[in-house]
Write a structure and sequence with these properties.
Oligomer: single chain
Distance between the termini: 31 Å
Strand order of the largest sheet: 6-5-4-7-11
Number of strands: 16
Structural class: alpha/beta
Radius of gyration: 22 Å
Strand content: 15-25%
Number of helices: 14
């Protein structure tokens, strides 16, 4: 399919401007801006406040956002008309005066469709509320022929949209590989994709807003919005491949060629190692991916703990320079807990301690995500929330 040189339509330009992973764009609005940008920004500021703090009065919103009561009244009326905010009745009276009417994000008024294409043998899909709650699920087998894969993804998305039972705000997709800022999968070796305009194909087929990002980048958004991660966090996603998503100062990092976080094809060690799908010897992915770990543990006489310790140490080798350069304090692992938690995570921490400046980096915390296999689906929902409403 078409590559990065496609001309943009006006709709694509608008969609690009609202992307979760646009360069230089922080995820969360926190203050007023200049008048020429004020209305769209302040709409997002109101939605963001309600998303995180829940129902409140218009006067509460005015205090929280530092916007005037007139501006808040106007914005809330507009957001109610658009179906994004709803009145929730009167606040319980605790003193003299007229009880205030509470407003909140209409969390059931729209649905989001999320797709996770990172699985080893299944594509996962879900219908989610604006709160990231999954209300319906579907999954399909990964086609054996790469030529059939895009059609399979479109069909999965179409079935989920039909099952939404509410207006669909948009479709978010977490894909393996390197994905550019227009949702073109530049390369995904495990799916046999190169320059696949997945975002354009889904938008043309379903006529809905679509956002496509690398699966680890989607996952780190879920950890930030729903998992309580700090503004500076690295999430390592281990599945069919190995990748990572990074937030620095609350801003997603993509890199100049959209390959930030592609740690899977960094070679770890000088002792050779297994052949990687990319053609190199000893890549982190060849040691750490789920198929690689399972194959090594299935070898006759294999010591499970030794395999996991070795993989964890090699992950630590890959992460140590990142921790040293960015001074990260938190690394989140996403994947099968039986493989990643315990022995592997402990070996990663020990290697980080021996390869970074002890005085400053001894406190690096390596933990499993609590979101399980839904993390990419929920991250895909955050992509849509951020791109369409400015909420994360």
């Amino acid at each position: 399919m078409s590559g990065p040189d496609l001309p943009r339509s006006a709709a694509e330009t608008i969609a690009h401007a609202g992307r979760s992973f646009s360069a230089g764009r922080a995820l969360r609005h926190a203050a007023k801006v200049l008048p020429e940008h004020a209305r769209a920004h302040n709409r997002s500021l109101v939605l963001q406040t309600l998303f995180h703090q829940g129902a409140m009065s218009r006067a509460d919103l005015s205090r929280e956002t530092a916007l005037t009561r007139v501006t808040i009244s106007d914005l809330v009326a507009e957001l109610i008309d658009d179906g994004y905010v709803a009145e929730r009745g009167m606040r319980e009276v605790t003193g003299p005066g007229k009880p205030a009417i509470l407003v909140d994000l209409d969390r059931e008024g729209h649905r989001i469709v999320g797709l996770d294409l990172s699985g080893t043998d299944r594509f996962l899909g879900a219908v989610l509320t604006l709160d990231g709650e999954i209300v319906a699920r579907l999954d399909v087998a990964v086609p054996s022929e790469p030529a059939d894969t895009v059609a399979t993804v479109i069909d999965l998305a179409r079935r989920l949209v039909a099952d939404a039972h509410a207006p669909v705000l948009g479709i978010g997709v977490g894909s393996p590989g390197i994905v550019d800022d227009r949702g073109v999968v530049l390369t995904a070796p495990n799916l046999g994709w190169r320059n696949v305009d997945l975002e354009g194909a889904l938008r043309d087929a379903l006529h809905l807003p679509v956002l496509v990002a690398n699966d680890a980048n989607a996952a780190v958004l879920a950890e930030y919005t729903f998992g309580g991660a700090a503004d500076d966090v690295l999430l390592v996603r281990v599945g069919r491949g190995v990748g990572s998503g990074l937030l620095a100062g609350g801003q997603p990092m993509r890199g100049s060629r959209f390959a930030a976080g592609e740690i899977g094809h960094v070679t770890v060690g000088t002792d050779g190692g297994p052949l990687c799908v990319c053609g190199k010897i000893g890549c982190l992915e060849a040691w750490l991916s789920v198929p690689a770990l399972e194959a090594r543990m299935a070898e006759p006489g294999a010591d499970r703990d030794a395999v996991l310790r070795d993989a964890g140490a090699r992950l630590g080798i890959a992460l140590a320079p990142i921790v040293g350069v960015l001074d990260l304090s938190e690394i989140v692992l996403s994947g099968i807990p039986e493989l990643l938690d315990g022995t592997l995570a402990e070996a990663t921490v020990e290697t980080l301690r021996t390869r970074t400046l002890a005085e400053y980096h001894d406190g690096v915390h390596v933990r499993m995500t609590a979101q399980g296999e839904d993390i990419v689906l929920r991250g895909a929902a955050v992509m849509v929330l951020s791109g369409q409403l400015g909420v994360s």
